[in-house]
Structures are given as C-alpha cells and as structure tokens.
Amino acid sequence: VGPVIRASKVDFDVLNVNLMKLETDCKASWDHMKRVAKHDGSQIFKTKINEFLTDAAERIILLSLIKKRVMTRYNKFLLYLGVPPTEATKTKPAELLKVIAEFALEYRTTRERVLQQLEKRANHRERNKTRGKMIIDVGNYSNKSGEHTADSALKELLKSDADADLLADRRKPPPTRLHKLVNITMLRFRSETCVEGTLPKIC
C-alpha cells in the first residue's frame, strides 16, 4: 500500500515535462562546454566537466526509459481492468492509484474489524462453555467449606464454654450454712438502707 500511496501523489504530466527539460538542459550544457573548451586550455577542467555531463546524460536517459516502461505497464493494467484504449489515454495515473490506495486501506480496515469480531465471538463461546461449570464447582466448594468451617467453629465454642463451666463448677466450693446466713444478712441490709435513702447508688 505504501508504494501505491506514494505513486498516487506524483503528477506524471509534470514528471514528463521535467524529464524533457532535463534532457534539453543537458544538450545545451554540452554545447556550452565545447565553447568554453575553445578558450580554456585546462585539461583537468575539461575532464571534470566531461565526466559530470556524461553521468548526467546517462541518468536522464535511464529515467526516461524507466518512465516509458512504467507507462507501458500502466496502459496494460488499464486494459486488464477493462478500460477501453480510447479512455486509457484520458485516465491519469494519479487518480487511478488514489482510488486503489483508498480501496486497499478500506479493505484492510474492514478485514481487521471482521477478524476482531470473529475473535471476540470465539472467546465469548469459550467463556460460555466453561463459565457455568466454574461457577457451580466453585460455589459448591465454597458453600461446603464455609458451612464446615462455621460448624467446626460453633462446636469448638460450645465445647470450650461447656468445659469452662464444668471446670468452674468443680473448682467452686460447696455453699455452707455460714455463707447462706451472710448472703441473707446482706440482702436485708441493702433493702433497709434503700428504704431509708442512705445508699442510693446501690439501689
């Protein structure tokens, strides 16, 4: 796509004019060199100018041949597309290449979008295949483990409370008659003081 886009930005009419101008200037340079060589006897100057103009002429001829071959292939391409020969001369290369470049970019964008949609659908199908099983398995495991942990903690708590109460009952001395009398006396004392108003905080 890159070379097509770059070629679509080239004005081939201007390119043809530039090549013709280069060829004309090169021929004129040869004439100027002959005139300068008559009045200047420096052999080094003649050699350098001669080499430069020869190299320039070869490059101009090579560019002209490349341009001619490119236009020949372009005309064959138009015939391949079904363009009549009468219309082929009117069709500019820049316009046709611009259409081809836009079509190629649009095709590549659409293709990438379609591939992304297909990939998303495939991933969605894979998730749907495994999602239910994973949720059920993990849910059952978490429920069972959670219930087992809660039951174990409750059993341990009840067992520890029962053991603590049993141990406290065993360590507690049996109440005697003296303890009972002391408790009864304290209760009577508190009731009397509450009635008289001497100990409001205890009431």
Automatic annotation (TrEMBL):
<dbReference type="Pfam" id="PF02181">
    <property type="entry name" value="FH2"/>
</dbReference>
<dbReference type="GO" id="GO:0030866">
    <property type="term" value="P:cortical actin cytoskeleton organization"/>
</dbReference>
<dbReference type="InterPro" id="IPR042201">
    <property type="entry name" value="FH2_Formin_sf"/>
</dbReference>
<dbReference type="GO" id="GO:0005737">
    <property type="term" value="C:cytoplasm"/>
</dbReference>
<feature type="domain" description="FH2">
    <location>
        <begin position="1"/>
        <end position="133"/>
    </location>
</feature>
<dbReference type="GO" id="GO:0051015">
    <property type="term" value="F:actin filament binding"/>
</dbReference>
<protein>
    <submittedName>
        <fullName>Jg4417 protein</fullName>
    </submittedName>
</protein>
<dbReference type="InterPro" id="IPR015425">
    <property type="entry name" value="FH2_Formin"/>
</dbReference>
<dbReference type="GO" id="GO:0005856">
    <property type="term" value="C:cytoskeleton"/>
</dbReference>
